[in-house]
């Protein structure tokens, strides 16, 4: 579904992604892990063209996106969930979720709201349709953000440390929604420090260090027998 070939990203003289190549298959859940500053967010942002690679190419469903001028087309197909939610503060939960389908996909209000209501129910917030974000807990906000991304019917969902800003007691409710989503067959790329999630839910782990894809493999293999010293040192620190 996604093919990444030789992607390099530099900011001034700083090489943040260094010749990354990988393929992400339909329905696959890929966890991206690595130390702070290793390029995880930049990698994710390249996948929906929030950043443009300095060189290399990315294909989505067999069409190259790195030479597209219309980034919105890509963003419609690639949903993204951020660490800090980024909900629209002046809109209710229902409006947060139903807004983009009306604006971008030109759905009628009642259609968009019907789909949005289903998604909001699915993330367990059916009683919060009319609430504003400032009335929600962090975990609830993040579940709204997930519903909002899903409302665009993306082909792929990207998550950038979706639970890192949450109080510990709220992490599980968000991970549970993500697990459910994985079980529906959604293709997901998840930057996370939740190693249990990576171990249990991911089909594959990508380990980034200093902008390089140092290791790639099944979670069981990666966590039990990492091959590079970098990965060993990283896992020693966090596990
Ligand atoms: P991670 O998500 O793994 O912590 P990032 O992808 O956020 O890493 O950042 C990798 C490196 O790229 C860092 O050194 C960061 O300072 C740098 N970087 C990220 N975005 C920009 C930017 N827009 N301009 C300049 N440097 C950036
Ligand atoms: Mg990051």
Automatic annotation (TrEMBL):
Signal peptide (from-to): none
Pfam family, one: ABC_tran
ABC transporter domain sequence ranges: 2-235
Lineage top rank: taxon: Bacteria
GO molecular function annotation: ATP binding
CDD domains in the cross-refs: ABC_HisP_GlnQ (cd03262)
Record keywords: ATP-binding, Nucleotide-binding, Transport
Record-linked PROSITE patterns: ABC_TRANSPORTER_1, ABC_TRANSPORTER_2
PANTHER family in the cross-refs: AMINO ACID IMPORT ATP-BINDING PROTEIN, ARGININE TRANSPORT ATP-BINDING PROTEIN ARTM
Record-given protein name: Polar amino acid transport system ATP-binding protein
């Amino acid at each position: 579904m996604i093919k990444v070939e030789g992607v390099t990203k530099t900011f001034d003289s700083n090489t943040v992604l260094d010749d990354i190549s990988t393929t992400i298959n339909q329905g696959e859940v890929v966890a991206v892990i690595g130390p702070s500053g290793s390029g995880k967010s930049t990698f994710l942002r390249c996948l929906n063209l929030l950043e443009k690679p300095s060189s290399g190419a990315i294909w989505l469903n067999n069409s190259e996106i790195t030479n597209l001028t219309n980034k919105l087309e890509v963003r419609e197909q690639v949903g993204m969930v951020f660490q800090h939610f980024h909900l629209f503060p002046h809109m209710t939960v229902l409006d947060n979720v139903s807004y983009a389908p009306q604006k971008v996909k030109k759905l009628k209000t009642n259609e968009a709201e019907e789909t949005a209501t289903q998604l909001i129910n699915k993330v367990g917030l059916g009683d919060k349709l009319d609430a504003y974000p400032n009335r929600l807990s962090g975990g609830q906000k993040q579940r709204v953000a997930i519903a909002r991304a899903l409302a665009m019917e993306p082909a792929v969902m990207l998550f950038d440390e979706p639970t890192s800003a949450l109080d510990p007691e709220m992490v599980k409710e968000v991970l549970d929604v993500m697990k459910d989503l994985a079980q529906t067959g959604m293709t997901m790329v998840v930057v996370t420090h939740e190693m249990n999630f990576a171990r249990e839910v991911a089909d594959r782990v990508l380990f980034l260090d200093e902008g390089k894809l140092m290791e790639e493999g099944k979670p069981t293999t990666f966590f039990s027998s990492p091959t590079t010293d970098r990965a060993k040192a990283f896992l020693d620190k966090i596990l």
